[in-house]
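SEQUENCE-TO-STRUCTURE ENTRY
===========================

Subject: a protein chain together with a token-level encoding of how that chain folds.

Sequence line: the amino acid chain in single-letter code, read from start to end.

Question of interest: how does this chain fold, as expressed in backbone structure tokens?
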Amino acid sequence: MGTFIPWTDQICIGIQEIDEQHKQLVELINRLYDAMTQGADRQQAATEILQELMQYTIVHFAVEESLFRIFDYPDYETHRERHQQLRDQVIDINKRVQAGERLITPELLFFLRKWITSHIMVEDKAYGPFLLAKGIEKNWRRTSWLGRIWPGARR
């Protein structure tokens, strides 16, 4: 697998479950990069990975937003709006790709890389200390819960 987005400890927010979900998002974008740069049927493989990325992103955002409500995160609305913007963009891109448009391009990959790294390193890093101070455990993991929400979730 390529390292279009290398995972580093700088990207971690300090909550194991969320960090693992972020790693999965990074892995999906790296797989999308690999699909676009290797193999004979690049567009078909990339389309399938984009679909998986869209589904996983929606589930991940739901997990984060649930935690924000549970722990009464003060920037919940602003963070939710940022999630909604990306959700809308990814859903629109996916619909257009499913309709036959060739939108899986290097520009899309660079957009996704910039968005995920800046979102995690700025906005998500802001809630990590808040949730930890509110009592969430660093090693909080809800593998079975994530599996119930999205049975295809990988670890």
In short: The longest helix spans residues 42-70. The CA atoms of residues 4 and 51 lie 19 Å apart. Residues 14-149 form a domain with the Four Helix Bundle (Hemerythrin (Met), subunit A) fold (CATH 1.20.120.50). The chain has a mean pLDDT of 85.
